[in-house]
Amino acid sequence: MSPEDEAAIYQAMRAAREAARGYADFFGWATDRDLEEQNVTGLLAESLHAAGALFFAKIKRRGRGNDPPDLEALDTAGERVAIEVTELVDGRAIQAFKAGRPYDWAEWDKVKFLSSVSGLLKAKNVRFPKLKDGPYPGGYIVLTFTDEPELSRSTVESYLSGHVFTGCENVKRAFLLLSYDPAVGRCPYFELVKSG
Fold this sequence. Notes:
Layout: H1 3-19, H2 33-50, E1 56-61, E2 71-75, E3 80-87, H3 91-98, H4 110-125, E4 140-146, H5 153-160, E5 173-178, E6 189-191
Parallel strand pairs: 3-4, 4-5
Antiparallel strand pairs: 1-2, 2-3, 5-6
């Protein structure tokens, strides 16, 4: 490796460290949001595959300026699928971490959780008419991911039990992906039940 290569690597490492937020960042690629979105979608695909429920392949990043959607894929019938990726995270907890209070985690009761997820779904729903390079006959998929420390698999399961999300009629399917859980050996996911 040349000295120039080493310098470039060190510079990239410093930039990533400076951009890292340090809180709820299991999925984080601080220097490349496109890569982060592709990675999150790939982890969902792995978990869906393990459950025998994988319905898309050939994930392709669209890149900044070519979105929405963030990514596209092909469903099992070979139809194009639009995928939008969004994160559930508490901004105040990120600020607390950066201010030197690393254990001021966000508190997530059922109302805050459901309201936040609903808000993210509705925000993506209204982006549907703005999808570029359509049509997407395979549908419009919204993938929400989170690494919030207090949102364990059992907590999320209890919060989602019996809940139906409304106001997302343009979304064909919606998922919530949690960070890696050693008890299941992968990132657990939940398909969000929605009306319409």
